[in-house]
């Protein structure tokens, strides 16, 4: 097995996280739904834009493979949804993207965030991504070899911001989606957002976060607000109550410079989605910091 090392303040540690164990779970559903909603909005204008993915993963996941089958996490998310005919246009668009990868009528593949971007963007839009894992990076890069206007780097996310931001295009979406394996990654995200925003302030930023321990989530959100960056929307979906004690009970997206339509789009989508994923499901969408 390949050992993947990264350096933290304390020294080298193993990059043990593999998204293939988690692809298509309830947290991916909410994250990718928000991603699709933002990209749909950016695609309304003719002018090309840039999609930047700081923690890109492998791009495409087999749900029938050993890793996904070991956890069956996709059954908490896309497994419950993919045959559903939605009223919400963004929910239906997301389901259609998954169906596009599974034309035989069996749920065999799930698209990661860079693949969703590749399926949605026009040839003139650009895609940039960084992924550190030595096994996931080549899988990701191989999917972009023939796509013009793409830059896929085996690079640390924060070094990637320095190397690739600002992009040539004036508009864009930056997705920040670390594994949060280490406690220090929360602080890294706060610094990373400030760094990226200082270089590309007009972009929309979407930061995914897990809900594991409520007090820690609120401290993280306060730290993001503490950057002084304006116009933040918080979207959260929890299939289980905080009190259930089952590890990750939900997840959220903090969106900087959200499209003005995003809050309403997500309220409508989550009203429809929440009971499909869990009878105990709950969601919230609110403006955290004003424009
Ligand atoms: C949650 S997964 C990404 C999933 C992907 N964004 C998606 O939605 O399909 C996080 C990824 O970040 C990678 N990673 C961890 N630390 C990183 C770093 N400092 N820079 C870049 N990638 C990193 C991991 O190898 C993993 O593939």
Which key terms come to mind for this protein?
12 strands, 23S rRNA (adenine(2030)-N(6))-methyltransferase activity, two-stranded antiparallel ribbon, Rossmann fold, 9 helices, 291 residues, S-adenosyl-L-methionine, SAM-dependent_MTases_sf
Describe the structure.
The chain has 291 residues and is an alpha/beta fold. It has one domain (5-231): Vaccinia Virus protein VP39 (Rossmann fold, 3-Layer(aba) Sandwich). It is built from 9 helices and 12 strands. The strands form 3 sheets. The chain has an 8-stranded mixed sheet with strand order 7-6-3-8-9-11-10-12, sandwiched between helices. It is globular and about 45 Å long. The structure holds S-adenosylmethionine. The site of S-adenosylmethionine has 20 residues, from loops.
Summarize this, please?
The chain has helices at residues 26-42, 66-71, 89-100, 113-120, 136-142, 157-164, 184-199, 214-225, 262-277; strands at residues 5-8, 11-14, 50-53, 60-62, 109-111, 126-130, 150-153, 172-176, 204-211, 232-238, 250-256, 282-289. The chain is α/β, with parallel strands linked by helices. α7 links the parallel β8 and β9 (204-211).
